[in-house]
Write a structure and sequence with these properties.
Strand content: 15-25%
Distance between the termini: 81 Å
Structural class: alpha+beta
């Protein structure tokens, strides 16, 4: 047995992390393992889980180390699972793993352990047991809250890596858990309610700020295009605010129509602003400032 080559290959596959049992399987004795720890060649991360000094403790190594510590009955859930599926850009500060209710293991060191039955809800991805994509999205949305939950759900749907029906099934499987009400609202937005809610928010934002001179659903004749219904129009300033829902709702034909209409409006002398549900949720003050600046500049 070529112990060193086997160890090197294992560490490459597992982001520099391995268990004591894996080291023994590669041919190391317990004494040899303890020697590497004493010399600082390996660092203890979790009980019987080590990091090679030739590797850094990056996000992937952190996930893998926790997974190896908790064992094959543990499943990565929540935002950590969404990140492992590449549906989030950054991993969460705390990784959440579901274990069977009979497991006697406690949360510690940036790892939250929850007891949950996940019958049929698991897959092994790059050596880590993780919930399927749809369940990861729903669970992450419940964990992250309305604004960030909307971002991950919109992104997952836009990428076509999950469908709305997939998300609904995953939601039904976790009804009653924390965040279920938030997920239900997000699913309603995803089903088409985001645009109408965004319009209501934009109208309320303008009214509450005392902004006048605007009309909702204003019809204008645009040369070279025809009649266009403008979401929010400031006729005197010739400023139009187009209100979008989620990116997921804009398919290619709609995207092309919007561009043709926007180009025609610009050529006719209108300033076109675009706001969406995400902007109105995350930064309404910024949206208001953009609109008032545009109308003031045109005055």
């Amino acid at each position: 047995m070529d112990t060193e080559n086997e160890l090197a290959a294992l560490l490459r596959r597992q982001d520099g992390v391995l268990t004591r049992a894996q080291a023994v399987a590669c041919g190391l004795t317990r004494r040899a393992i303890d020697h590497r720890l004493a010399r600082g060649l390996w660092t203890l991360l979790w009980p019987r889980v080590y990091l090679s000094s030739a590797h850094t403790l990056g996000p992937r190594a952190r996930v893998r180390a926790a997974s190896l510590w908790l064992g094959p009955t543990a499943t990565l859930i929540g935002a950590g699972a969404a990140w492992w599926w590449k549906l989030l850009d950054e991993p969460p500060a705390v990784l959440r793993f579901a274990v069977p209710p009979t497991r006697r293991v406690r949360s510690r060191g940036g790892v939250e352990v929850v007891r949950r039955v996940l019958v049929g809800w698991g897959a092994t991805v790059s050596g880590v047991r993780v919930v399927p994509k749809a369940y990861a999205v729903v669970d992450a949305a419940a964990e992250l809250g309305l604004r960030r939950g909307a971002e991950i759900m919109d992104r997952a749907l836009l990428s076509r890596r999950v469908t709305l029906d997939d998300l609904r099934r995953a939601h039904r499987s976790r009804l009653g858990r924390p965040g279920s009400a938030t997920v239900a609202r997000l699913l309603a937005l995803a089903a088409g309610g985001a645009r109408s809610e965004a319009e209501r928010r934009a109208h309320r934002l303008l009214r509450d700020a005392g902004v006048t001179g605007w009309l909702a659903d204003h019809r204008v004749a645009v040369p070279g295009y025809g009649v266009a219904v403008l979401d929010i129009a400031f006729p005197a300033a010739r400023v139009v605010v187009e209100v979008d829902g989620w990116a997921y709702h804009r398919d290619l034909p709609a995207f092309r129509r919007d561009h043709a209409r926007q180009n025609a409006l610009v050529l006719a002398g209108w300033t076109v602003l675009r706001v969406d549900w995400h902007a109105l949720e995350a930064d309404p003050a910024g949206v208001l400032a953009t609109i008032t600046s545009a109308t003031a500049a045109a005055a």
